[in-house]
Amino acid sequence: MTPGILVCSETDEGALELLTKGHELAKQLNFELSAVVLGDRNDKTVQSYFEYGAQKALLIPNSSFGALDAETYANLLHEIAKDNGPDILLIRSSRLGKETAGRVAQKLHPAA
Amino acid sequence: MHVITCMKQVVDLQQIRIKRDTREPVLEGLPVLFGDFDKNALEEAVKIKETHAAKVTVLSVGSGKLKDTVLEALAMGADEACIVVDLACEGSDTGASALTLAKAIEKIGAFDLILVGEGSADNYSGQIGSRIAEILNIPQVTYVRELSIEGNTITAVRDVEGALEVVKGQMPLVISVTSEINKPRRAPLAQILRASRKPLKSWTLSDLGIDPSKVGSGTSAIQVVSNLAPQQERKGVIFEGDVDETAGKLVDALRKEGALQ
């Protein structure tokens, strides 16, 4: 995956909000802006991610993760980000997002 | 059952003064204590001890003042305290702090529950519980407002946006608590005096097998650029006229602001 910014939100509303900011940062840094689309979505909804600035969307269907708890979400993001991953993960600041962010940060950059 | 409560020593936020010209907080010379969410975590641990015959250990990484700060935690009902005091820890980011706590937990030994507050009183990153769970490879249940235990199973009510979620889990695990979970007790003076007789273990990084170069401000991935109080502009509205007129205008303005009922 090309280094850049990855927007991660369990809701579409949150994703579009983060994409708005992500788009601004991506322009400033000359980074690629991508977004995770968590769960099954119709084409119109996925299209909105591109309209809000995403250059790539990673579609992750419901069937691949079951219930979305923080451990599952963190494992997913880690898989995406670990090899040549994005420089910035913009994660929605919901309680799920906050818990997941701590786990992902620990996975990607442990202190020792 | 063994419950470890991780607590963070912070300055007394109620006593922070703000410099008027620069909006910088004055943090030097302030008394230190454990934050409110951490006290909720400890209170829950002590309640578990009272109903399940558990042992409660308080764990904290901080300055030399910790040996006094923990007395209140011991007085609240913890059975023993383990503190990590090492200058090299100063300025550690959450990753380094979590590593230090996790190594200390390994040194403490077998446990069933690790309780933490939903965030620290000063930084409120809310990452410590998640990072410790990741390092120790155990589950975590966050934002818990109600907790019960039966055998090896916990049942927790989680406060998530717009809903209450009930989850069950098997120990060992990490639990982060909200302020709704309980009202921390005030330790009576007699308990505070007796607290100094409870076991207190003090460790350095070397005791935990941590290379000092892996923690502290030198390794921090985050740099605090500034820390300022919010700007508070006065509205600067002046009412002119005689006393009755200006008093009436003032009352109307206050009503509009919702300051009068």
Mean pLDDT of chain A: 93
Sequence of secondary-structure elements of chain A: EHEHEHEH
Number of extended strands of chain A: 4
User: How far do the termini of chain B sit from each other?
Assistant: 53 Å
Beta-strand residue fraction of chain A: 15-25%
SS summary, helix count of chain A: 4
Biggest chain pair interface: A-B, 19 and 28 residues
**What's the SSE pattern of chain B?**
EEEEEHEHEHEHEEEEHEHH
User: Over all CA atoms, what is the radius of gyration of chain B?
Assistant: 22 Å
Computed over alpha carbons, the radius of gyration of chain A is 13 Å
Largest sheet of chain A: 4 strands, parallel
Q: What percentage of residues of chain B falls in helices of 4 or more residues?
A: 25-40%
On the 0 to 100 scale, the average pLDDT of chain B is 93
Stretches with pLDDT under 50, minimum 5 residues of chain A: none
- SSE-based structural type of chain A: alpha/beta
Q: Helix- and strand-based class of chain B?
A: alpha/beta
Oligomer: heterodimer
- Topology, number of strands of chain B: 13
> Any idea what the shape of chain A is?
globular
Low-pLDDT windows of residues of chain B:
none
Fold and architecture overview:
Chain A has helices at 12-29, 43-51, 70-81, 95-108, and strands spanning 4-8, 32-38, 56-60, 88-91. With 112 residues, chain A is an alpha/beta fold. In chain A, strand 1, helix 1 and strand 2 form a beta-alpha-beta unit. Helices cover 30% and strands 27% of the residues of chain B. Chain B contains seven helices and 13 strands. Chain B is of the alpha/beta class.
